[in-house]
Amino acid sequence: MFEEILNNKKSISVIGLGYVGLPIALEFSKKVHVIGFDINKEKINLIKNHIDPSKELTASDFENTNIEFTHNFEDLKKADFHIIAVPTPIDKHNLPDLKPLFSATEFVGKILKKGDYIVYESTVYPGCTEEECVPILEKNSGLNYIKDFKVGFSPERINPGDKKHSLATITKITSGCDSEAAENIAKIYEIIVKAGVYRANSIKVAEAAKIIENTQRDVNIALMNEFSMIFNMMNINTYDVLEAANTKWNFLNFKPGLVGGHCIGVDPYYLSYKAKQIGYHAKMIESGRSLNDSMGAYVAQNTLKLLINNDKDILKSKILVLGITFKENVADIRNSKVIDIINELKSYKINFDVFDMCASSEEVKKEYDIQLINDYSDKKYDAVIIAVNHDNFLNFDENYFQKLLNNDGIIIDIKGIYQHKINNLTYWSL
Ligand SMILES: NC(=O)c1ccc[n+]([C@@H]2O[C@H](COP(=O)([O-])OP(=O)(O)OC[C@H]3O[C@@H](n4cnc5c(N)ncnc54)[C@H](O)[C@@H]3O)[C@@H](O)[C@H]2O)c1
User: Fold this and answer.
1) How far, in Å, from the CA of 209 to the mean position of ligand 1?
2) What is the rounded distance in angstroms from the CA atom of residue 229 to the CA atom of residue 231?
3) Is pLDDT above 90 for 107?
4) How do residues 296-310 score in pLDDT, each as one tens digit?
5) Ligand 1: distance of its center to the CA of 102 in Å?
6) Would the pLDDT of 162 be above 80?
7) Catalytic hit among 128, 133, 263, 358
8) What is the full DSSP assignment across 104-150?
9) 38 lines ligand 1 (CB under 6 A)
10) What is the set of domains in the chain, with CATH numbers?
């Protein structure tokens, strides 16, 4: 398979052209022939015009590529090595929603031929690929696993908005259903991943490695959030404490904060779901999740407490929320926990404005029914919540906030950006 792909005798397909799939498809297409498939026709039309709907890539990333974009799954027949990178979200009960994964697997099953490879990149719980997806491939193709087609799992580690760590510069974990598949898959990824690949022992190991990377971050951030709640009650600034503790060589550098997006706040639920299936209640993972999910309401409640402490009538107060995306310097608003702050403010009928130059007003309106403001330069507020540390917000100083705020105004600095910079105004951070 590797030689034939390299010599353009066989092609690669990428199924799902989002944050993960499009960069992989384009990177491979600089070396070999690729078919990029997505069910979203509008997205395919934009991509055909060299526009990345996720706003991570620029037109120059499409240069010197050998790729066909399609929304017709039958075109996948022309490929032999299929990479699946569709979403793996959770439902409203925080349970894995595997519908997109199963649907993509059905598409591939329907066009599968003897000798084909399928590699999953979507984050799943250990066992999902072989226990859930392989039977769908067999059923839809009439072929036999391993004898007729091979499967692998290679989790994605890219970090949206991070220009330093990219697909080519992050070591990639690969795995396969047998030693031949494992080697072919590793070599194929080595074509594009300059940092090299790590050959995991099995598909389950590769699945588990990805899920614990994000679960570890989630649990550690939850611990910081718990520290922050304790120190808040004691009038100790958490960032001061962390700065001091970080002078020890083995203190882990995590910060408190909102945990949104579709990875860190979602993946632990996949692991706890699987754990429950096999009879184990993942106490620490679930506790971390519930604590992190409560932080938006906690921030809003503390804002209101401070307004009352400053003798403000909260129903006449006006709050500015800066940032609505799930993290800094990205356009992605899916699963943003800033919404939890806003919903809590709404529940108290507080007046607020939201500004975010990275987010699309139309998407925010559609997804959350919130009208972003374009400009706040002629307005005054009683509190400003800096919810996301976008680069554009980093250089504000006390003078800036003094002009923005009414008398006795409050700065809520979730990420501690203005630590040590605010001396006179009321300042609070996690
Ligand atoms: N975004 C990240 O930074 C990141 C990082 C590591 C891992 N992951 C994981 O990678 C996977 C993909 O995430 P993403 O952020 O790229 O998602 P995304 O929502 O940005 O993109 C997924 C794409 O798949 C398409 N799609 C959905 N169902 C389909 C189907 N049945 N057939 C074909 N296309 C379909 C959607 O239209 C969309 O364009 C998820 O499992 C995610 O957890 C994401």
Assistant:
1) 19
2) 6
3) yes
4) 999 999 999 999 999
5) 13
6) no
7) 263
8) HHHHHHHH--TT-EEEE-S---TTHIIIIIHHHHHHHH-PPBTTTBE
9) yes
10) 2-204 (3.40.50.720), 222-429 (3.40.50.720)
